[in-house]
């Protein structure tokens, strides 16, 4: 293949079997659809990254359910915690995931893994017991060293809280409230950072940041309502779920990102029939 494919899903909010998130939505069937959609992609991904909020409350039974739902995936899956997760329970629940086990000595779930020629750097922005995020000096220093060590490779940084204002007021109030300016200054020192990919917002949002592109990913179940008012109601809706496919073009040496809807729909149908344009 001339591409390396990294699939991003985010904000799964898995509950115990039969339990509803927010008392209204069973998120498990939506994740099952997402897994099925990934497995039927015409090009097999090289890896999958889940950018936080894997579960709704970080409970052991929720992670057990998550493990069952992810089991049909046949490529490496890399996870990082969001504000709805619990780091230690996550690590205990996935003992075969060496990248998580290697972080036991640290207070944060941070790691670097190869995905073809790419280097995926997972950066932990979560604060236990809080919805907002933070990048302290310790986490930023770790990232700086990781970027120095991987300066010869194209880099994708994955984190839960986006480091930029999204203009969705109620979400920005629980965004990355500390460390975003320092992060942006740090990233500007490196020319090999292809993307900063985030979760938390349950919507596709992108902007320039730190000399690269920073973006958020939709969720496989519920989305945050699109309302750019500073005092918009904190609410979710059932817009079509989606995921991101980040494709490294080996020839052009650049990352190309695609948003794709997770759903059953008609097609494909040909534009041409027998070599002729259909009238």
State the gist of this model:
Helices cover 21% and strands 27% of the residues.
Notable characteristics:
7 helices, globular, 279 residues, 21% helix, 17 strands, Purple Acid Phosphatase, chain A, domain 2, alpha/beta, six-stranded mixed β-sheet, five-stranded mixed β-sheet
Describe this structure in words.
By secondary structure, the protein is of the alpha/beta class. It has a single domain (3-265), classed as Purple Acid Phosphatase, chain A, domain 2 (4-Layer Sandwich), CATH 3.60.21.10. The protein has helices at residues 28-39, 60-70, 87-93, 98-101, 137-149, 169-172, 180-187, and strands at 3-9, 47-51, 77-80, 111-115, 118-122, 133-134, 155-159, 176-178, 193-198, 205-209, 212-216, 223-224, 236-237, 242-249, 254-261, 272-273, 276-277. The strands form 5 sheets. A 6-stranded mixed β-sheet has the order 4-5-7-9-11-10, with helices on one face. Strand 1, helix 1 (28-39) and strand 2 form a beta-alpha-beta unit. Helix 1 (28-39) runs parallel beside helix 2. The chain is globular, with a radius of gyration of 19 Å. It starts with a strand and ends with a strand. The model has no long low-confidence stretch (mean pLDDT 94).
